[in-house]
């Protein structure tokens, strides 16, 4: 689905069904250096089970025109503007990693529009090591390889949903490289990991959230380890679901992640 937001082209995958703003809506927000394809399975399930789906490409990511936005709150304002363009008044938000922080900000900036908040692979603060930021600044491809190896729980993980011929390590790295090439005016990888590192408004945002919150965490996640969410979970009064995966819960444990999202949506009023 093509939209125009703030005078620039924007794209959202609708899960294989025409977008109908009269249906309960689910907005899906990807993580750093990714795009809407992270939500292929989840978006299709929702679209074929009575939901209107908007799985976004953030500005500067492939089908949505850049430049990338300055920080997490600015990215959330863009998402809210996209909802205005799409004619959506109220929605559930699903976000992975950086996208979970954006989803949190959306629910905090306009609490009356948030029916539910699902935060996958999240933590606050979402700190990034100085060594990784330095590598991202100097040799971003090396930094992508580092993050890829840390994010997936095993050395030979296959996609958890049907994908003949697909290799999870290779496909994730290829996507990061593709998004990096598509934004030649900036070091997108560095920009977004730095945005996560700089985000300092999590607890203040949590205090403004009024909708039900679910966190879906990977038991083997070393990028956003479950132990790093204790205070954040308490502040959001979140329901926590742990799935058998590293940081790529959507690909490594798709059935368990989908089940947790379905439960979260079933308990939400998106009208």
What does this structure look like?
This protein is an alpha/beta fold and 271 residues long. It has eleven helices and eight strands. The chain has helices at residues 40-47, 72-86, 98-109, 130-138, 140-151, 168-181, 188-198, 202-208, 230-236, 249-252, 254-266; strands at 2-5, 8-13, 25-29, 52-57, 91-96, 114-120, 213-218, 239-243. The longest helix has 15 residues, at 72-86. The mean pLDDT is 94.
Provide a brief overview of the structure:
This protein has 11 helices and 8 strands.
Strand order, sheet with most strands: 1-2-4-3-5-6-7-8
The CATH first-level class comes to Alpha Beta
Judged by helices, strands and strand pairing, the structural class is alpha/beta
**Can you give the helix content as a percent range?**
40-55%
CATH fold descriptor:
Rossmann fold
Number of alpha- plus pi-helical segments: 11
What's the main sheet like? 8 strands, mixed
Mean pLDDT, to the nearest integer, reads: 94
CA radius of gyration: 17 Å
General shape: globular
Q: What is the CATH H-level superfamily?
A: Alpha/Beta hydrolase fold, catalytic domain
Distance between the termini: 22 Å
Low-pLDDT residue intervals, each spanning 5 or more residues: none
List SSEs in N-to-C order: EEEHEHEHEHHHHHEHEHH
| Overall number of domains | 1
Q: What proportion of the residues form beta strands (DSSP E)?
A: 15-25%
Please tally the β strands and state the result.
8
Assembly of the depicted chains: single chain
CATH architecture: 3-Layer(aba) Sandwich
């Amino acid at each position: 689905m093509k939209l125009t937001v703030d005078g620039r082209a924007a794209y959202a995958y609708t899960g294989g069904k025409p977008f109908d703003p009269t249906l309960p809506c689910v907005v899906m927000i990807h993580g750093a250096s990714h795009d809407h394809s992270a939500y292929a399975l989840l978006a299709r399930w929702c679209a074929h089970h009575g939901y209107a789906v908007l799985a976004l490409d953030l500005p500067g990511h492939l089908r949505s025109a850049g430049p990338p936005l300055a920080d997490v709150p600015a990215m959330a304002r863009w998402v809210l503007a996209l909802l205005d363009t799409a004619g959506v008044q109220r929605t559930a938000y699903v976000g992975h990693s950086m996208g979970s922080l954006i989803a949190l900000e959306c629910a905090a900036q306009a609490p009356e529009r948030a029916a539910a908040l699902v935060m996958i692979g999240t933590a606050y603060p979402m700190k990034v090591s100085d060594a990784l930021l330095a590598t991202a600044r100097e040799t971003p491809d090396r930094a992508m390889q580092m993050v890829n190896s840390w994010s997936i729980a095993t050395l030979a993980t296959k996609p958890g949903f049907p994908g003949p011929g697909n290799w999870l390590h290779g496909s994730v790295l290829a996507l990061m490289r593709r998004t990096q090439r598509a934004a030649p005016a900036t070091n997108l990888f560095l920009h977004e990991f730095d945005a996560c590192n700089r985000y300092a408004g999590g607890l203040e945002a949590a205090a403004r959230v009024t909708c039900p919150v679910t966190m879906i965490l990977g038991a083997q996640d070393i990028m956003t380890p479950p132990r790093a969410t204790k205070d954040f979970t308490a502040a959001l009064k979140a329901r926590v679901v742990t799935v058998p995966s590293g940081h790529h819960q959507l690909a490594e444990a798709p059935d368990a992640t989908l089940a947790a999202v379905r439960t979260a949506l079933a308990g939400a009023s998106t009208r």
